[in-house]
Amino acid sequence: MGTFKIEGGIRLKGDVTPQGAKNEALQILCAVLLTPEKVTINNIPDIIDVNKLITLLGNLGVKIQKNGPGSITFQADEVNVGYLETEAFKKEGGSLRGSIMIVGPLLSRFGKGYIPKPGGDKIGRRRLDTHFEGFINLGAKFRYEKEDHFYGVETATRLKGTYMLLDEASVTGTANIVMAAVLAEGVTTIYNAACEPYLQQLCKMLNSMGAKIGGVGSNLLTIEGVESLGGCEHRILPDMIEIGSWIGLAAMTRSEITIKNVSWDNLGVIPNVFRKLGITIERKGDDIYIPSHENGYEVKTDIDGSILTIADAPWPGFTPDLLSIVLVVATQANGDVLIHQKMFESRLFFVDKLIDMGAKIMLCDPHRAVVMGHNFKSQLKATVMSSPDIRAGISLLIAALSAKGTSTIQNIEQIDRGYERIDERLRALGANIVRV
Prior knowledge:
The structure is a single chain. Helix 1 (22-31) packs parallel to helix 2, helix 4 (103-110) runs parallel beside helix 6 (171-181) and helix 6 packs parallel to helix 7. It contains 14 helices and 23 strands. With 436 residues, it is α+β, with helices and mostly antiparallel strands. The protein is 29% helix and 24% strand. Residues 120-125 have low confidence and may be disordered. The chain is globular, with a radius of gyration of 22 Å.
């Protein structure tokens, strides 16, 4: 297992360009299975989770041609569906949660799709019911092998469009059902669909391939099935979670940083949530400029003077992936913040490591924590810690960069799953971080 050694308390300065979006890449890569024609994808992030999925596609028989940094052409004209029932696939597919999204395209195009119980972050229960209920509504038969934790859907005939009201606005669930429905017979209507920018990107890409998807950007999608899809070229958006991470890092270390080419129009409420913490965020064209917060940052209370509450919600609400960042940034704010993590019950459990560093946090229950900010009057202390998941890992890294002394973060593979060459990019800004 790799380790980061970080000397904290150093002011950083410079420009940084966000990587391609991890969560979009996982959807877009699965969509290449829908056509035998070539699909070129640009701005692919070079991170563990995405690279695992690319390897999985290659093992399925998809031809992969690397064109240059972040650009790959895929061609799924000789897919080996039999690979899905091998022991190698059960092991490989189970290590990556994003692999669940190969099921919709495979079911729609080849009549069968299987997946072992997916892995990913241990952040609480992450149900798959929405995915499989959607496939069943389209006419597929469901199978589950309890001993192997192996899921499958099959159909002997073409899937048939229908109306469905999703029980949750699951992003991966919506993506999976959309990819199954684009080749189904007739019209599929999905209500309570996820509508975040990366799902919109998937729909736009599919439409460029010949799909007929209406309502993109809303929670009511209408999909008119087509006989086949063609190839296309697609560019992945910058990663909004990484952008939020850089904002939090700049504020916490009181650094002057410019985040380049952020696609402002796709950031939703993210800038305003950080502004509520008192962080100055300036828009310069399509860049974000964060000045060095020499005098700290003061939390804005609610209109009636009550404690600021920051909670996650389905898009266009605040993404749950940034709550860990907000929490660590609040530890040095001037004021108190209630963090309410509604969607996952284990995502706040990393706060004990921040408390060990001197942060004032009261964990109310698995979903809520009150953070009492130091206002930089007391610096966090360096410590040895381990990264439990991607977002907690980057939050601990931000804490370590602001702390007094040298910190050690173990299990950094969790951070590498979602952040491309994070240590190199931090060193370019002046950070003292070493990968051991």
